[in-house]
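This part of the workshop introduces the protein records we will be handling. The question running through the whole workshop is how a given chain folds. To make this concrete, we reproduce a full record directly below:
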Amino acid sequence: MVRTYDKIARTAKHSSLDLKTYLKQQKDLVDRALDLSLPINRPEKIYEAMRYSLLAGGKRLRPILCLATCELTGGTIEMAMPTACALEMIHTMSLIHDDLPAMDNDDYRRGKLTNHKVYGEDIAILAGDGLLAYAFEYVASETKNVPPQQVLKVVALLSRALGAAGLVGGQVIDLESEGQSDVSVETLNFIHTHKTGALLEASVISGAILTGASDEEVHRLSKYAENIGLAFQIVDDILDITSTQEELGKTAGKDLRSQKATFPSIWGLEESKAQAKQLVEAAIAELEPFGDKAEPMVAIAKFITTRTH
């Protein structure tokens, strides 16, 4: 199939970016690609469980960032889409597992019952495992018109972002910190730069790696991602306090009930908002050398501190 991603994406080009339209167009492209990426096979139950969570909605921020940086550094939507899909598969796996009773024990995600509430804990675990394995297969088998060494770099990057040096390591410290009253800002930063930030950073950098971007460009994008990743988590902590379950699509107020250390619990709400704003400003500064081409990524950074869910 000759994909129409690039043709559709060209309609999103604006001299002055309409972020709402841009995000919707990119999300629609990602949703369509995800639906096509995972047809139901035998055994049907596991594929249905994988698709249930993968196609449950969400902002698709990680794949959108991957597509944006690929275009920013001279690539195309088609080049980046398999990696973008893989990022969402990995992210979805982390949500399925994070919601399990042994972890954060949540009943709702993206406004729907969590995977284990629908399919049981055993199938939910396997659905997460299946998505994780398939993510790497999908990058390796579906990425076209990209030199193999660059695809290999992306696979290595995703592996590191996911493992003990990234998401898994952050989750471990997060679990160990529950109920503790003396969690430091440094520990909280470690948790979130690994649990949330590592995959966000991989989302940004992977798009640039696919195009063979320069070391300087990758470094700037890495700093951008590091800043928006931490800002994203600070805003998540704020929204857990200030939003309803309907707005969030998941259980609100859960951090407080679980006695989790959060940025507002250490800094308070107003200082947390100020810190998030500073991080976004620092992220945007890293994009200055890219000029107008970075407009979508500037807008996404600003969106992080103004979002309501």
